[in-house]
Amino acid sequence: MSARLHEALRDLAEEAPRTDLTDRVLAGARRRRRVRTVAAPVLAAAAAVIVAAGATLAGTTGGTPEPVTPANPPRTGIVNDGPLPPPLPKRHPEAITSAFLDHCKNPGGPNGKTPRGDCAQWRLTDRSGRQWRLSDGTGTYQTRVNDYMNGRGPLEISADGRRLAYYRADEQRFVVRDVPTGRVIPVRYPAPLADLLGNYHDLTFSRDGRYLAVSPDVTTTKRAVLFDTATGAVVPLPDGQLLGIRADGGVALATPRRGDERMRKATTLMLTGPDGRVLSRTTLDPRTELGTTGPALSPDGHTLLVRMKTRSMLDHAFADVRTGKVTRRLRLPEKVAQVAGSPTGWVGPTQVFTGSTKTGRGDASGEGIDGLFRITRSVIDLNTGHETRMQAFTLRANQIAFVSGGYLR
Fold first, then answer.
1. Most CB atoms within 10 A, among 100, 236, 359, 379?
2. How far apart are alpha carbons 45 and 146 in whole angstroms?
């Protein structure tokens, strides 16, 4: 057998549908004490419903022939009109820039009727605008029977769009996929299906895509970890809200976490080394507070973007994570202040990348009033407030889940 034929047969074997989904899903839906959204006995029933309904969790295709060419945005200008795109190829040379779930366009969103089959999978868009399905990842999944409540599998896109982090239900673990090479790196972090159903997990890449932080929901006792994709090392992190990952693998954390009322009184900032040990602790300037979401830590590894506690939502500042003190105040234009304060990532020392979502009537409530969502990807200069739009497109759905990345070349 030639080397080329051997490699081709190996690739075909790797891409073949997995057949042990039922046993693995049911085994993962075991009883556990801490479940936020559903009691343990319901988990096995929910898993059984998922398997019987066509393996929504694993994203299998059921042997349906796939189109040879990917589905491009239709003439309507709405990117999820038209036929479903094919699965992402094992090796793909282009960066991924966004991902979305439209929940099969159900009138009631993900909870109106459980999305099933291929349309329940994450849909990816690459830099050329071509679309693909993440067929081996978990998209929309059922957390309670009778379509009472459904969730979405975690997904993260690296800043350069060359890596994806997501959950594989049939393997019951998180993985990092290198898009150009097709290499899949398992994350050595216990992630049974029952944990995914009961607690959402945030995934955060470092700016260069080397490190991945896995942060479980605040209601669980599990600790967040930092995974090094180069060495396979997994480092437990102190309890706290992740603010960003430094170039050397150290992280910045805040405690209490965002949303905790105690944060209004005092916020403690921590810096760790690559081994997870705390290097410094300090108190954030009481005149400021952290944004609601997004990485607050700039690429220099010590500057934080914070909000001033004033009557105006336009007042922001830079603070030093090592001292907690404000180093410079910022006044942002009204049209960009809200999204800039909770960025998706950083393009430069004072430039942030944002992905904003508005409905057809300009409402950002999370539900498409007119059944349309307008997505805008922009870079905002925090010094000048100037916004540079990179891309804008429209999705048709009642509710959506949207992830953005691939903003660095």
1. 100
2. 11
Say how many residues make up the chain. Answer: 409
What are the backbone angles phi and psi of residue 195, rounded to the nearest 5°?
A: -65, -40
How many distinct helices (H) and strands (E) make up the chain?
5, 26
Q: Report the distance separating Cα 81 and Cα 86, nearest Å.
A: 14
Its sign, for the CA torsion 128, 365, 378, 164, is negative
Going residue by residue through the chain (409 aa), what tens digit of pLDDT does each one get? 444 444 444 444 444 443 333 333 323 332 232 222 222 222 333 333 322 232 334 333 333 323 223 344 455 678 888 889 999 999 999 999 999 998 888 776 666 677 778 888 999 999 998 999 999 998 887 666 555 556 788 999 999 999 999 999 899 999 999 999 999 999 999 888 888 777 788 999 999 999 999 998 766 667 899 999 999 999 999 988 899 999 999 999 998 765 555 555 679 999 999 999 999 999 999 999 988 778 999 999 999 999 999 989 899 999 999 999 999 999 999 988 888 888 999 999 999 999 888 776 444 444 544 688 889 999 999 999 999 999 888 898 888 889 999 999 8
Q: What structural domains and CATH numbers belong to the chain?
A: 1-236 (no CATH), 240-331 (2.40.10), 335-409 (no CATH)
Output phi, psi for 285, to 5 deg. Answer: -45, 120
Q: Are 97 and 36 in contact (CB under 8 A)?
A: no
Distance CA 152, CA 2 (A): 43
Q: How many CB atoms lie within 10 A of CB 130?
A: 17
Is there a contact between 313 and 297 (Cβ–Cβ < 8 Å)? no
C-beta neighbour count of 394 within 10 angstroms: 17
Q: Which residues contact 105 (CB under 8 A, 6 or more apart)?
A: 80, 119, 396, 397, 398
DSSP secondary structure string, 142-196?
Answer: ESSGGGS-EEE--EEE-TTSSEEEEEETTTTEEEEEETTT--EEE--S---HHHH
